[in-house]
Structures are given as C-alpha cells and as structure tokens.
Queue: 4 jobs
Job 1
Amino acid sequence: MKSKRKSAQNVPPREGSAAEGKRDRKKELTKDRILAAALELFREKGLEGTTTKEISQRAGIAEGTLFNYFRTKEDLALFFFQKETDDLIAWYQGNTHLAKASLPEKLFAIMHRQLEYLAPSEDFIGAVFFRSLQPHSKLNPLSLESQQLRLRYLMFIRGILAEAEEKGEIPPLGDLGSYGVGLFYLGVVAHWLNDTSEGKQKTLAVLDRVLHGAMRIARKEGWEW
Amino acid sequence: MKSKRKSAQNVPPREGSAAEGKRDRKKELTKDRILAAALELFREKGLEGTTTKEISQRAGIAEGTLFNYFRTKEDLALFFFQKETDDLIAWYQGNTHLAKASLPEKLFAIMHRQLEYLAPSEDFIGAVFFRSLQPHSKLNPLSLESQQLRLRYLMFIRGILAEAEEKGEIPPLGDLGSYGVGLFYLGVVAHWLNDTSEGKQKTLAVLDRVLHGAMRIARKEGWEW
DNA sequence: CATAAAAAATGAGTACACTCATTTTCTGTT
DNA sequence: AACAGAAAATGAGTGTACTCATTTTTTATG
C-alpha cells in the first residue's frame, strides 16, 4: 500500500535501549487506532452489535490484523479494564488530598471514580466485567490476563487497607480484607448496572451507607470470626 | 389464546389433567432429548466446546429444531439453573429436619447442596452463571428469563429469612437481606469455581465461618446502618 | 545498495450460532 | 375418511469471529 522506502542512512537503533525503530512506532500506532475505533464502536453499538470487520475498517487495517493484536474481541474489550485499573492507581497516588481521608472516604472515592469512568460504556461493560470472573479452565485457556488484572486490583486495595491498619482505623484483616472489598466492588457494579435512578444516586447512597456501616462493624467486632 | 378444545364426540386424551395429545407428548419428548444431549455434551466438552450441530445430532433432530425450543445456546445452558432452583426449593420444603435448624445451618445446607448439584458441571457452569448477572439491555434483549430466575431465588431466600425473623434469630432485614444473601452466594460460587483444594473444603470452611460470623454481627449490631 | 531474515499485514477461507422459507406431521371438523 | 388449518420439523442459507498460508514491510548485515 505505501511505497515509502527507506534509503539507507546508517543510523542503527541501539539494542536493548528504549530507542524505538520505525517498526515499533508503527505497531503502537496501529494498536492505538484499533483501540480508539473499538471504544467508539462499543459505546455506539455495544459489544455484540459491533463486528470485528467494522472495527478494522474504522481503524484502517485488514480484519486479520486485528487478531495479531488481540486474541479475541473479548480481549480487546477487556483491555479497557486494564487501562481503567492503571489509571485508577495513578489517580489515587497523585491525589494527596485523599491520602489523609478516612478509609470509607477513600473507598467511596475510589469506587465512585470507577463508576464515573465506566459510565459512558455502561451498555457494553457488563458483558465483559462479569465474564472476567470466570476461572482459568482447560477448555477455555484465555482468562489469564483477567486473572492478572484482578490480582493487580487486589494488591492495590490491600495497600489501602494496610494504610488504614497502620493508622489504627481497622484491625488487621489479612488478604481476606482485600478479597472482601473486591467482592463488594463486584456487588456495587452489579447494582450500578441495574440502577435506573437518576444519576445512579441509589447506588451511591447504598455505597456510602454500607461502607460506613462496615467500618463500625469492623471496629466493634474486630473481625475475629 | 384460543379455548376451543376437545369435543364430546371425540375420544379425548386421558393423560393426566392437562389433556395431552400426541403433539404435546412428542414435544416434551423432544425437549427432554435436547436437554439430555446438551447436558451430556456440556459436561464432556464444555459450553464453548460443544456445537449446536452436535447437540441436535445426539438428540436426533435437525439443527433448526433446537432453536424452536431454545432461543440461544446460552438459554439452553441457563435452563439447568432453572431446574436447579426448582429442585432446590422442592428439596428444602420436603426436608422436615432442616425446618428446625438455625439460620446459618439452613443457609449452609442450601448452599452446600447447590454446590454439590453444580459440581459435575463445574467446567461449564461459570460461563453461564456470571452471564446471568447482566442486566436487560436494548442491545441484548435476552436475559428476561434469568431475571425471573433470580427473582424466584430471592423470594425463596426471603421466605427463609422471614422464618428466622419470626423466631427472633435476626432483626428484620427487609429485601436487603435476601439481596445480600444472593450476592453472598455469588461470591461463594466465584470462590468455589477457583477453589482447587481437595473436595472444595476451603470454600466450605469459609462458608461456614462467614455465615456464623455474620449471624453474630446481625444479632449484636442489629443491622441498623 | 543488495540481500536475507524477521516482523507485520493481509484477506480468502473455516466453523459456528442462528434464521427462515418450505415441508411434514398432527388435530378438529364434516 | 377426507380435508384444511395449525404446529412442528427441516436444512440450506447468512453473518460473524477467528485462522493461516501468503505477501509486504522493516531491519540487519556484507
């Protein structure tokens, strides 16, 4: 398609350094274009309503190329969760104001932000979100990435709980704590997806109430069971 | 619906009260054969690994016929959950021993039974289970049945919680109680699917501990948040 | 610059879930 | 029994996610 041929100027890229050759630059560009096209279309027409043909057309590549970058359409959709988690962690770490807040305030802020982030994709997010829960299986050897994703999220939460432990806000909970928060987040998203109240206020109200209630329980009971 | 039925002149079908003709009998038979074939194959090769062609072949029907009985392959898989819930309710109601047990014992027994029931289908059950959580959407106007299914389950749980309230085991929780139990069950299944311990003992142990712990919290704190 | 090897892109081909116009089977009526 | 209309079964056809042998582009090396 393109006829731009490189006349040899001897400037070889360094091995092992961060220097990017033409190949890498192009590759990244293509990936970005696929992602942009996919996100647009998923939001427009949902996950099922979008074909891989459309995505590749909008991205300006052949259909087969898409599958050189993502194993499946689902994987492609899953990528946005990867990004969400990364962005979330970066956002939290760059937010000095939050670092001084109480634990329920932190958790509320985190989950609220995640919901806001997901809002424009609400119509297609459920399909991917719940599928990412399925375990690895002989028959379906995909979900390794989602496994990693979940792990990253759990470790992030564990860090936040550890902070609260140090400040004496809560007793030591161990891994069960972050697992519980993760599960709770799952419930929040399920509720949020089904919430038809204006601006999803119902979900936010429940979220706030439950977080503070859980704090009280954790303090009084000590989670000794 | 039309109500023109059997006439006095004809020999009416005598099978049961529901007046079954040859047509109805055949229809039921076909449905049963599809279900039997599907369950076998899903357990053998998983949900993805089984084609609708195989199912119809094993059931001895044309491929198109399958879709006269079930809108999608997923619907077909979902049917086993329907059945599970019905069987569970019947089992509970026929179990006089359980009626006298404490709430956590009841819930443990119920969930334990469900896990046992699902065990032979473990490899394909996750795929369906989590998908049934997705809300109704314009783009994906299926999940009405799974909505109904969930509702039936929630009402069953609400009945059990109501019993416990009457006996003074727990304070009134309202609908939030059964919703919470349902969500908890979700977490249990997620844990169970990922549990590689011998005989899934780890899940059962956590289940037992958490149920009793939650009872203690409910009694002492009164769930007033 | 020429060449070869590696990486990336390509698109016709495949397998699958699902549709639908047509055919076959059943039922009530005369 | 004969018929007509309804219900059910059929299987060739359709659209789509994904594969893979081949072609094109990029890089490394003399």
Job 2
Amino acid sequence: MNNKQLKLADLAKLAGVSTSTVSRALNDNPLIKQETRDKLKQLAKQHNFSLNTAASRLRSQKTNVVAVIINFDSGTEQSINDPFLLKVVGEINLALNKQGLELLLSNSFMAGDDWANYFINSRRADGIIVVGQGKDPTNIEAAAAAGVPLVVWGDPKTPSNYPIVGSDNFVGGRLATEHLLATGAKNILFLGDPGHAEIGERYRGYLAAINSAKAIPHVVSIDITSGAAYQGINQLLVAKGLCFDGIMACSDMVALGAMKALKERYISIPNDVALVGFDDIAMADISHPSLSSIKQNTQQASVILVEKLLAQLQGHFAESQVIEIELVNRQSSKR
Amino acid sequence: MNNKQLKLADLAKLAGVSTSTVSRALNDNPLIKQETRDKLKQLAKQHNFSLNTAASRLRSQKTNVVAVIINFDSGTEQSINDPFLLKVVGEINLALNKQGLELLLSNSFMAGDDWANYFINSRRADGIIVVGQGKDPTNIEAAAAAGVPLVVWGDPKTPSNYPIVGSDNFVGGRLATEHLLATGAKNILFLGDPGHAEIGERYRGYLAAINSAKAIPHVVSIDITSGAAYQGINQLLVAKGLCFDGIMACSDMVALGAMKALKERYISIPNDVALVGFDDIAMADISHPSLSSIKQNTQQASVILVEKLLAQLQGHFAESQVIEIELVNRQSSKR
DNA sequence: GAACTTTATGCAAACGTTTGCAATTATTTT
DNA sequence: AAAATAATTGCAAACGTTTGCATAAAGTTC
C-alpha cells in the first residue's frame, strides 16, 4: 500500500503546475495544450493516481452514476432471482459502462418510495432506470413528476410522461397465439396475470388473435413464477382434465413450470398441448422439448434505454419506444 | 419539484440550531439530546430533506458503498447471464442493504486491473466483493495486497491472504459422486473444467469417491455453459456411444445441457444415465425429470460475505469460511 | 513596435458535509 | 454557595475537486 494517497495537489506539485491545470488536463479540457495534457495523464498513470470521486461529485454536481431499480410488486413471488430481469440488468450494466456510467443496483427496500429524494437529491445518481413497471406506477410517476431523469423497461404503449422502452407485447401475444392457432390448437390457455402492464398487453394480443379466429379465450391467472404455473396447470388438470390443447405463457419460466406439470402427466408436448413462452431465456433452448418463445431483444433495448436516459441528462426530451419482437419457433409448438 | 434543494444549513436555520447539531442529530449521535434528535429528524422528513452523499463522503472518507465485481474469465463464454452468479449478486444485494450498504455493480471491463485504485483510492466504494475466483487470481491478490477490504465468493479451501467464502466443493463433488455410485452407476463422467478453482475441488471430490469405489474416472472438460455441455455430450455419444451411466456435472446449467443431449437420443434419465448437477438453481426443480443437485446456500453465504467485509472495514481480520452443502435428491438420479 | 487577439495557465472561491475543540448551560459534589 | 463535573450545543476548519475570472505568454495585425 502506498504511504499516502496522492491527490490532485500532489500531482500538480510533482509536475510543477497548478491543480487547475491538472484537473483540466485529466478531463481532456481543450483549454490545456495537448502536449501538457499528455504529459500530465502519463504522470497520473505512472503514479497510480486516481481522482477522489466524492470531491469531484460534490464540486461538479454530477455523479456519472445511474441507479437501476428492480421494481417488484410487493404481492408477487417474482424475485431478484428472476432470470429474465437479471439478464436485463446485466445488459444495462454493459450499456452503461460503454458510456462511462456506473451502475448502482437498488431495489424498493433500499430506495423507499421517494426515489427523487433518495437517489437524485442525495446525489447518489444522476438518473434512474427502472426495470419493470410493476402493477402500481405511483413511485415512477412521482419521480418523473419531480423532474428526475428516468427511463423504464416495460410496456411502451402505456401512456406516460416518461419514456418506456420495451417490446411490442401486444404483437408478441398475437404472434404467439396465431402461431399456436396455426399449429391447429383450438383451446388455447393464456397463462399469466393480465393485471400486470406488460402481461396485460400480451393478453390483449392473445385476445385479438383468439377473437379473429372465433375461438374461446381462457385465462389462468397466476403469479409470474414457474412454481405458480406448475400448480396452476396441475390444479386445472385435476379439476377439469385436459381441457386445452395450447398454452400461451406470459414468460418462459411460467411456460417451463407448465411444461413440467404436463410432462409429469405424460401429456405430450407439442402433440397434445402446444406451448409458447415469452422472453427467450437461455433455458428455452435447453429445455426438452425446446420451448418456442417470443424473443425480446434485451441488448438493443438496454442500449436504447441508456441513450434515452443520456438524452434526458442533457436536457432533451425522450419518447417511449417499441422494440421489435420475434417468434423463435422450437419444438414445443411444432406439429 | 422543489424550488431549491434543501441543505443542512437551511434545515439548521429552520430549526434555529447549528449545522453541527443537525448533522449529529441525523446521524443519531448520542451527544445530542434525544428530544432534539427526534425533533430534527421529524423536521428533516417533513421537509423532504436528504443529505448530499457526495459531500458526506468527501468529509467522512466513507462511502457506505460496496463494489461487487462479477469476475469472469476472459476465455469463457460464461456470462453475465449465468443464472447462478446473478442469483448470488441478488442475494448479496439484499444482505448489503440490510446493513445499510449500497451495491455498485461492476465488471472487469469497467474496473480494469487495478481494483484498489479504481474503487478504493477513488472513493467509489469502501470495499469489494468479488463473485467468482476465475482462473487467474492476479487482480484479487493485487487488491488484497494493497490492503483493500475484500471478500471473495469462491472456493474457501484455496490458500489465500483474503477471506474466501463458498461451499465445500470437495464434499459436494464427493457427495454427488457417491450418490451416483449408490444408485448403481459404474461409469461416471465428470463434466466440467477442473482448471477452474471451484470446479477443481468438485473434481477432486469426484475423484476421491471414484477411487474409493475403485471405479474409473473420466473427465469431459468443457466450458461452463449449457451449450458447451450439450455439444460435449453429443460429440462423446457420436464418437463412443453410450459409454457411461452417470454424470456429475459441474453446474446445473451444464447438467441441463447434458440432459437435453441425452433426451434427444432417447437415453433415459435416470435409468440409462443418472445425473447430478451443482448449484440447485430454480430450473433444477422445474426441469423434467427434475434435476438432483448439490445445493449451495447462497443466502447464508451472502450474509457471511457481508459480515466478513464489515469486519475488515472495522479493521479486523477475517478468515475464509466453508458453507455447508447438501444434496437435493430429485428424479434425475432416482433408481 | 504598439495594439490587439489568441492560447495557455494560475488564483481562489465554491460544493455541503463532518468533527475536534471550545463554550455554554445544567447538574452534582464538597 | 462555590467548585467541579457532566450534558448539550456551536464555531470553524477541514475533505479534494472544479471552474469563473484574471493573468501571462505568444502570435497577429496594422
């Protein structure tokens, strides 16, 4: 360990210039001669110097930090373990890093209800990315109303005064259902809770497809977990027997839970029941039969989320944006 | 939005006391009379006050932030999408929050090689939690040598001058293998790369069990991904046919990849091949057949990781610690 | 070569907390 | 009742940057 932590003033003394010059040089300020800049940067590297971000943030009123809030509904069992949400967080992390921003990971437990206060007024972060709309938009709306730079991963069609980036859930739901219909399924279950914004859109897409095929809709409303799906399908089978021949699941985890329940009863997938999920997580490809799914382009979405946040940080306005979505056709719906 | 962001001085003026008193009151300093403390806290809440963390950190030389580094090997495809690692991160987040600490999520891309410098000297964080040892401990050792408060999730038996918390991988490997032997398997494959610290221990546990049963070890060394496992097993089957009747996989994702390859060829699990994974991720329970697995108690581990980091922050020494591990017996190895 | 513009650097004042020490007031001891 | 002690609070100096403004040096124009 170094005897003493170097500060800007020390570096300045070493170089025989003022602290202002060093500060500007390290920030690549064009006021400083290129030659001087290079020299000072090299000196900094050589002496293993690193800026005190606390001081820098205090003075410049900027943190270069973005808070990412994983927004669970309190009523649900969907948790920090949800692979899809975590995948999104991972990709947001990458997208932020590429812009030189850092990621403060948070959740409702830590942040409380007043996000503007907790993150922005306290200078913990410059902006917020919310992953998941949840059922209750109160916190998000309050933060947006307080003028916080904010973007949300969710359903972009939800009317809002803040930008929402997300997949075209309606089209996704319709695509999946049309695909199931095309395989010959007549009685297609929607498996998921339409009360949730994104899932609601998927449900409406499902309804649209069902209606135009003059089929009969049927919803099994469950929590967004594989366990709930497993139980839900099991109970349905016990109560009414095999009364369906297709399932449109609101997520892959839910689909996989349903798949397990079916397989345990030796109901063939896709022959007896065709199945389509949503999200296209890694497991969709690895499950057996592999799971057809609506693929969300989370990587592209993450980049756009960060762009829109950046735009707001620079005082511009940003609109919601729909990300293209596509059906990945695998074994679970092939017949 | 408020007209102006309140600061400590404003609050002090409002209350008719000095800033020192307000500062101490909000930090629950016993120097301040309880009555005054309560009054000031209420006033702060009422006015929606929140401390400027930048200023606070600058002055107090403490951030209350912990950097979490997901430590991938550059050579591997194991990614931010790995559900197990993300689960660990999620639980570390919870454990940190319970101690009032925040989580700065990072990766090698952002942090570079000199972690001490990037995180600690720059006052971005007070300490570091590294998730995953990786194959190359250079960065970790350098940081530890620089005196950085640091804990690692990994293989606790690895000799180190920093605390490593993790499961008893040797016992886990042995348990899994003994279990497979007990089901009657004779030719048990180890599926995974023993060059990786934790997996190496699992491999040695496997070897111990194999040797004491006088069976013959056989390793299929692959990258830690389900895709690699799928390909690896496929290739082996093509090249040599079904030359094994048990697989000890180094992770659940790997096991699930192998499972898919087997199922595609109508090789019965567990009858033809018994299978045990490692990690006990959510999918283990949902796959069909459900996957026997060695369960790592990530929640307990996360709490301990945070405790040990806290201890170091308070200047104490912390040792590596082994977390109990247990076999979860499911269908994939039942016969 | 004087007057002006351009380029490069330095001075010093913030940014908003925390904290050692001093000062004041209340309580106890002699 | 004076002296000593304990309980509260305030003063003012940090913490290490960034940045508006002033200044100095160099280059340009007439």
Job 3
Amino acid sequence: MKRDIFQAIADPTRRAILVLIATQALTPNALADQFDITRQAVSKHIKILNECELLKQEKVGREIYYELKIDKMKEVDQWLEQFRKIWENRFDQLDDLLTKLKSENNES
Amino acid sequence: MKRDIFQAIADPTRRAILVLIATQALTPNALADQFDITRQAVSKHIKILNECELLKQEKVGREIYYELKIDKMKEVDQWLEQFRKIWENRFDQLDDLLTKLKSENNES
DNA sequence: TATTTATGCAACCAATTGATTGCATAATCA
DNA sequence: TGATTATGCAATCAATTGGTTGCATAAATA
C-alpha cells in the first residue's frame, strides 16, 4: 500500500480516532461506540492507521488495545515546518516594519 | 463542497503545488510544467485548493497568478497542537526521569 | 481582423474510498 | 462443553477521486 500519514488524517473519522487514542489505549469496540458507524467500518479505519504505522497495540485476552504512536505525528509537523518558517519570517518582517514606523513616529 | 484543508494536503501533487506557490505566485501553466500530468489535471487541483481557501489569485492580462494563503496552513498547525502538547509533555517527563536518576546516582 | 494562447468547465473513465453485511476464528464465561 | 463476545477478513456497493480529452471564452499578437 502506498498510504502515508497525510492520507490517514484526511478522513474526519480517522482524525477523531487519533485524538481519542492519543491519551488512552482503546479497543475497536470501545472506539466504535463513539461513532455512528458499524464496528467493521471502525476496524477498517484502524487497519489503515496501522498500515501508516500510527498505532501500537497490546493484546489483553481477546481484546486488543490500540494507542497512538505519537511520534509518527511529528511527520506532519516536519512537513509543516517549511511553511512555519515562511509565516514566522513574514511575521518578523511585519514586526520590524511596525518597530520602524513607531521609531519614525517618535522622531517627528 | 465539504472539503477541508486535510483533504487538500492528502494528495502528493497538491502538497507539491502548495510548496511551489508558498514563496512565489505561479500561473497554472507554469505549475503544469513542473508535473507529468496535463494542465487540466493541475487546474483541477487548483480548483480544489481554491475551494479550501488556500489560494490568493492575481489576474495579469489573461494570466492568473496563484499564491498560497500561508495563514490557512496554520489550521493544520492548530490541529497538531493537541498532539504536540502530548509529545512535549512526555519529553518533559522523560527529562525529569533522567534528571532524577542522575541525582540519585550522584548521591550513592 | 484572424490567429494564437491562457484559462476554466463539462463529460467521461478507471481506481480508490468509506461504508455495509456476512462469515471465520479465538478467547471468555455459564 | 456450549453459548457468547471481540476481532479480523472477504465480498459487495455507491460515491468520490484523479486523471483524461474536448470545447468555450477571453486576452494578446501578427
């Protein structure tokens, strides 16, 4: 599969799942309770998230607890970095401009 | 259309377009030159990005220059914030643990 | 004015997606 | 052991996606 994390977070249900399992491990059934779709639909989302290496799992008896591999989310953060550089730079430029205008105003 | 920025960045071609127009305004034709797909395919990507309010455009004669509304990218950053809090918190906890272990080691 | 050029829109198409139902397997419980 | 429960997999389906070709429009150029 040529799936990546950007595909994973494209779907709103999957984004909600990621938030839910970010702080606590949950079973597929527990997750399905949170949504108005069938357990199997949730299961397919889990499968996709798993393929994207976003999940760690722990088997307890016949239950499987899924939790978010939070470090994987850093990949999105890293991609955003190139844009963050730009908006921070532009903010600095605006800041410089305002400082300059202010000092010019004080001189008059 | 119920499209959002997460849909917009799900496609690799669109991500590449966003990078290209982040620092310079480009026409659809100029963009199409960068990819191995038809101009119309690029045009459809532009349409989608536009629906997501990711673009500003300036018409010059019959050419249209598209540039990224960089502030819109902050929406992704904001969504990531909840995860960033978690991984930064865990890093702090690890840091505390290491500091604690170190001091205990010094005491022995 | 006639031709070229830049762009957007419509129709179409194959592949993918998100969901469903049904079934198989494995673990728990009465 | 037999019934229940948790999960995953397969088949199926409608809707969406990313791509194509063809056409219409508007601006620049000869």
Job 4
Amino acid sequence: MVLQNFKTYLQSRAGVTEEELHRIFEIPQSKIFEKGEALLNKGDVCHHAFFVEKGLLRSYTIDEMGKEHIIQFASENWFMSDRSSAYFNEPSDFYIEAIEDTTVVLIDKEFIELAATISASFRQYNERALQNHIRHLQKRINLLLGATAEKRYLDFINLYPDLTLRVPQWMIASYLGITPESLSRVRKELAKRNFKPH
Amino acid sequence: MVLQNFKTYLQSRAGVTEEELHRIFEIPQSKIFEKGEALLNKGDVCHHAFFVEKGLLRSYTIDEMGKEHIIQFASENWFMSDRSSAYFNEPSDFYIEAIEDTTVVLIDKEFIELAATISASFRQYNERALQNHIRHLQKRINLLLGATAEKRYLDFINLYPDLTLRVPQWMIASYLGITPESLSRVRKELAKRNFKPH
DNA sequence: GGCATGCATTGATGTATGGTAAGAAATTCA
DNA sequence: TGAATTTCTTACCATACATCAATGCATGCC
C-alpha cells in the first residue's frame, strides 16, 4: 500500500535518505476520515500535524456571530495543524474537517523529534517549513489589508488552481473573507471582461 | 554603556543565567536611529533582528496604489525583523522605520547561534517566540476576516494600550486596515456611547 | 422518477467604510 | 514665539460589499 506520498515527500522535499527512511519508518500511523468528518474540534488540544496522503482538508474558526472563517486548505502533500495548540498544549481555537474522503498521516511530536534526530536534513526542512508558514501568513495579512475582493480571488486561483476546482465556492469565499454572493458577482464580472477584453 | 533592557530581557524572559550572559555578551552592537529614519528598505536583505532598547519602530509595506500598510509596531523590549528575508536571504518586501528616536540592539544570525549554543534556555525561548509570532499572525488574520473596524480598534487598544498613546492615529488606522478618517469616526462613535452609556 | 438538500446565481436594498475637501488642532522647528 | 507642517476631525457623497429573498440547478437518496 501506503503512505507513498509521505515517503516520497520526505525523500524529495525534506532530503531524507533511503537509509534514514528505514530507521524513521517505524512510527507514523495513517487514518481515513470521511467527507464532513472532524479531525479537530475547537476546545481540543491538537496533538498531531496531519499530512494529507489523499484528499482535502480545511481549518476554520466560528466567530461570535456564528460565521465560519476558513483559515487554510490542505490537499495532497500538504500539512495541516494548529501549531499554536500543539506547541503550547492549549485548546485550539479552530476546527479541522475533511472536505473529501481523506487519508492522513498522523505526525506527533515524538515522530518529529525522532526524524530530526536521525536526519539533519529533516530538521532543517522542518525549520524551513515554519519560516514558510510565517511568510505565507504575512502575505495573507497584506492581501486582507490592501486588496479588493477581486484581487484576492485572482491571487487565490493563481496560487491554488487545483483547489479552485475541488473546493465549493462558498468555502473559497469564506477563505477570502467575503460572502458567497459577492464571490459569485466577482466571477461574473471577471467572465464578462474576459469575453470582451478591454 | 548599557543595553540594560536587553540584558534584563535575556535573563528574566529567556532564562539566561548571569554566567552565560557574560560569555554571550561579547557581541551585540547597539545603534541609534532618529525619528523617521529607515532601518530597512524594501528590496534590501534583512540581516538583523532589532531589539528595541528604547523608542518605537514600525514595519510597513507600500502597495501598487502607493498606500502604506503597517505590519507591526515594536516598542521597548520587542523585536522587529523581516524573518522571511533574513531566513531565506531574500530582498525584503517591507520597510522598517523609527517612529521615535530609537536605540536598538542589532541581533544577527551569529549572535543567535552563539547564544543558543551557550544557553539551552535561550534556544528554547527563541523557538517559543517563533511560535508566538505565528499565533499572533493567525489572530490578526481572524480579526481581518471577521471583525468590524470598531472591534479591531477595541482589540488593538486592549492589546496595546501604551501604543495607542504613542503612535499617531493614522498609523493605527493603517495597522487596522482602515483610513484615518474612518478611525476618527469610530472613535467619535465610541466616545458618544461611553458618555451616554447604553 | 420524484423529492429533498445544498450550492450558485441574481436582483433589490442596506450598511460600513472609502474618497474628497475643508478647517481645526496639535506639533515641529527656525 | 510664531509660522509651517502634520495630524485630526467633520461633512458630504461614492462605492464595495453584505444582507435578504427568490429562483435555478445539481446531486444524492428512498
């Protein structure tokens, strides 16, 4: 079977060698979540990072008005977690849920410790991922501060063309911080302009 | 001279011992920037983190429309840096500038390496700071996605009461993602409601 | 196949925030 | 201290996006 994506990921992205891989690979477990199933609920402490073997996840918060705000999507070869909750051992502020039937690899602190001990390259890669995460959050803040709904949407489809097809529109709207109706109008407007350019 | 804040910070916050402190403290340099002076410009690679001994800094971007968006403030005992630029050795997307005459301690990678080698506690603290940074960015995204201008402002003055007094209003507005005019109106509205409660 | 359910679109209208412009207040600096 | 400059406020109007409600369009399900 299994975890082929994860293994490939460790080798080609994190630079873990074949030999190291064998020593590391006692540990991680995989698990299947059905569409709509929760991987993490608000108030729970997040004990894992989830590596997506196959499928699609989202994380989101619910505000005092009862509105969902999508924080992040994760499809194949992406990680999903609440780093803060995991690191500080605090109840999480958000939910993680499967958008499609999804196979994930459960990564706990012990695995990361072990892998980092065995493979210096992995440790380095992990650090790098953390920095990348910050860069990504920074960029998102910038877009939310400055860009119109249309620009944010264009940025999204440019960055995540695959997700644009797999994720329901109302979730994309939620990620962008607008209503589904507004997104529909933005799309209409874009379509119009593309058919009759300039 | 001094760097008293920085030393105190290392001891009481990062848990560095007196003895370790002496071994570490060959290195860091301090520098004074005048009000309005730039510590980092867009396009430059950020080689330092700046620890604020005394004074006040801001980091900001300028979008295609020429509008500033303030990313972060840093007053006494805070760090300011472009982590992404420093880590990836890439040109920075943003500017760092002194809002007041400001004394900073220049922290480069070598210092952090050295301090982390000498003091395990420092290494740990550094990791913790990184995670905190992520948590902070996450929270900001959430506010930008969901909260009104008023709520964002209330959150700001609650979190940074000291800054509210020291920072010009138009900069707070920029941080919140609204215009100075709008912030002025929000404040007026709040004042009205506070004088005639409920 | 028919019906329920969830999602997308559309139109009418509401609201929060933006833009502009002018003057008041505060701060800076010679 | 007074003039220059910056910041803040206010009023009026413009706009982007939200809200509400109706309809259309799939999809899944018994």
